[in-house]
Amino acid sequence: MEVGMTGYESFSSVPDRANLARADFTRILLLQLQTQNPLEPMDDEKMVNQLVQLQNMENNDTLANSMSNFSRSFGLLQLQLEFTSAAAFIGRQVSGEGLAGQSVEGEVVRISVEGGQGVVTWVDTGEGDPVAVTFNNILEVMGEASEEGEGEG
User: Cα(89)–Cα(123) distance, rounded to whole angstroms?
Assistant: First the structure.
């Protein structure tokens, strides 16, 4: 008695087979068991291989989720480290490249986290409003800003 592939044809029309979920894989396995020829059941080795594939798929999914979480956490940690490092520049003379590509030199007066820029230091050049310089574009830290009365007390 020959058992056909009834039920498999409709599954082959799924557009993205790479994104099969555990439930889909389990459903296929159960369908195979239900439609197999009772006189020629599925080979034990094939069954074990399919179960191993199912476990591997679950492990890969768990690993992908873990890596995604790690990447997100690492990005936040990196931002925190940059922010802490940039905070040490407040009151110091720096030179670097502003967001508009201009050369900037002056005292860091504040830092902030800007959406698309990451950590931004704001440098007072003495020529109006402070100029934004990303943390990565600070080229030199020259020391503390000179203040009157320093060393007294």
Answer: 10
State the Cα–Cα distance between residues 82 and 77, nearest whole angstrom: 9
Return d(Cα 90, Cα 43) in angstroms, integer. 71
Q: What is the rounded CA–CA span in Å between residue 46 and residue 123?
A: 67
> Residues with Cβ < 8 Å from 68, sequence gap 6 or more?
none
Q: Report pLDDT for 100.
A: 86
Q: Which residues pair with 113 in a beta bridge?
A: 119
E strand spans, the chain: 92-97, 103-114, 118-124, 131-134, 138-144
Cα 49 to chain centroid, rounded = 33
pLDDT tens, residue by residue, 27-85? 877 887 778 777 777 777 877 887 788 788 888 888 999 999 998 888 888 888 888 88
> DSSP label at 141?
E
Distance, in Å, from the CA atom of 77 to the CA atom of 69, rounded to the nearest integer, reads: 12
Reading the block at residue 117, the tokens are: 């820029």
Mean pLDDT over residues 114-121, rounded?
76
Largest Cα–Cα distance of the chain, in whole Å? 102
